[in-house]
Prior knowledge:
By secondary structure, the chain is mainly α. It is built from 10 helices and no strands.
Amino acid sequence: MKELWGRKEPRKFLLSYLIYEDGVNTVIVFSSIFAATTLGFRPQELIALYLVVQVSALMGAFIMAKPIDTWGPKRVVTISLLMWTSVAITAFFVQTRAQFWLLASFAGLGLGTVQAASRAFYTQFIPKEKEAEYFGVYSLVGKSSAIVGPLVFGQVSSMFGSQRPAILSLVFFFLIGMLILKSVRAGGPNVK
């Protein structure tokens, strides 16, 4: 553990990951609440929506597997964070269920992509024989990344009396995470 925290680039990556994953996890947590309370989705529709997001996440991970290797995970994570930024901005304007279904499918593509590319990026920091230790920390950071986002979402929603501005506030998590990620000296292509 001491070795990991003593290395600057993995530390910067984990900070970036903590921030942008907090935004992603907050979207996941509050999307069904937004769909139900703002757009009137029924429980059966929420279950179907969840399945659509999972299928599109699988597709996103599959579609972006080759680009993760050839373009590099840093570039793919950046693209997926731009996708998440556009999802949050678009969600602010969504008025109909049909629009939300389309947006949720697009968000699913971003979900699968950001998860796969983030893992691939992090593997570039792991020395041989240290996989369990490093992935343990990665998992801990990922699990800890649903704290600030929900607090911000709840506070902004309460201040404005609407979930729409709260969704927009999540853009900052993606942009700040992306800025920190940009400073990480790693994440290039895995194949030539």
